[in-house]
Amino acid sequence: MINWDSNDVCDQDLLSPDPEKQAKALQHGKQVSVAFAWWLQHGVPRDDGKGTGYPDLQIVASALGSADGLSQFPYVREARRLKALRTILERDVATGSSRAVPFDDSIGIGHYPIDIHACGSAPHLRASKPYQIPLGALLSASIPNLLAGSKNIGTTHITNGAYRIHPTEWAIGFAAGFVAATAVSLRVPLREIALTPSRLRKLQRDLLVQGQPLVWFDDVPVNSPYFEGTQFAAILGLIELRSDSLSLQPEGVVSGREAAFALGKMVALKPSKVLRNAGDLASLGELEWSSLARFGHGAERKHGAVKRGEFAKWLVSLYRLERTAN
Fold this sequence. Notes:
Blueprint: H1 19-42, H2 90-93, E1 106-110, E2 131-134, H3 157-163, H4 166-186, H5 190-195, H6 197-209, H7 227-235, H8 256-269, H9 308-325
């Protein structure tokens, strides 16, 4: 089983509606694979410099459940893709930042280079950055309740080259199953989950509880006590994502400017008279919990420096309480 561009086959008749043409295309693919295997056995220059070929390499007939030892069907690198509510574009994943463009409706993350085995000259491809998987890319733009669950989501030919890789597909599949189950349990159309903020946030919270990351932080793993809080606070836009790093530094001390930004965003999400006076925090340096005591919701019972991980958990608690109170 070899995934190498040396045994790629670019034969349009693999998709032909004519069964005879399709059969010939499949046989052509097998011939290329067998020829490549022969070359590895007899013609490839050896790494040790002692002639050519590795005769010990053999096709094992029983390995793939076929009579000839080849796969029962070819691996098609690029699937047919959904015309989705949101199409992921090259500029979304190939950015000048340390991360791809953030998606408010993220239901997972992934990272892989934009890898396209061209049938002609290789295209110039920019480097992709660690990206998110938007729910809108899994939902059809025109067909109610049609949900994609693999590399057939709403990407372009270019971005499919990154999103098609297996770990991203697994994250897509996990989220797709969760979205479908949620829609069934609530008895609502799939699209209503994506387009109703409260339902979307509930779905994202549930995914986080299951250990599905939605935002890239390379220093807050799934088993961190800060995982759910930092992830959800970032989804809400309460944490500024760094452009030069994937790190959050959860044990680092929050600055007054960070706190003012977060509480200002909180007011935009849910107007609150209590939080409107947070602007004066911006002039402070490293923050103490005593500076946040006037906002209540548990801050008045905390002491010492405000660490980012604990601050994110407090913000999420504040968000939920403020929504309930208003």
